[in-house]
Write a structure and sequence with these properties.
By secondary structure, the protein is of the alpha+beta class. It is 34% helix and 27% strand. It binds methionine sulfoxide.
């Protein structure tokens, strides 16, 4: 699928609601439906000690990812998108599903701070390309624009 079509789908899905749970849930569902070769797509939210599971599509996953370990923590702590072609070769990789072979993680920001990560897993080695990274980073920029993380209660 072309990146601009996906970006239009993301934008129409996100607008006009700015609720983080709504947007994380619907964006995970859209990605899981539209991107081929995935076995998991979802969010982890940043806490003091690590990352806590958020809305996702796929098999039930690890609830808490401790700081300093695994691909998601590395992306959050370095504020950098990461593609891992072979998860078995990534030191400290956390295997929530032993079927996963490659992974892409994109940091999500609010006020220039990383508040969450978007994590995509695939059972295919080297599933994710640099172009996929650009397309998903653009989707996450839209997500950031359409999401307000403050509590309304
Ligand atoms: N593999 C990730 C953990 C999250 S699951 O893949 C859903 C990691 O190493 O951080």
């Amino acid at each position: 699928m072309g990146g601009s079509l996906f970006a239009r789908q993301v934008e129409s899905l996100l607008s006009p609601y700015k609720d983080p749970i709504v947007n994380m849930a619907n964006l995970s569902a859209l990605i899981y439906e539209q991107w081929s070769g995935l076995n998991w797509a979802g969010f982890y939210r940043r806490q003091k000690e690590g990352l806590l599971l958020g809305p996702f599509q796929g098999k039930p996953a690890c609830v808490f990812l401790p700081a300093g370990k695994g691909v998601c923590a590395a992306a959050a702590e370095q504020d950098k998108s990461i593609i891992v072609d072979d998860v078995h070769a990534f030191p400290g990789h956390i295997a929530c599903d032993s079927a996963s072979r490659s992974e892409m993680v994109i940091p999500v920001h609010m006020d220039n701070r990383v508040v969450a990560v978007l994590d995509l897993d695939s059972p295919r080695p080297a599933r994710f390309t640099e172009e996929d990274k650009r397309v998903m980073e653009a989707a996450v920029r839209l997500f950031e624009q359409y999401t307000e993380w403050r509590c309304e209660l």
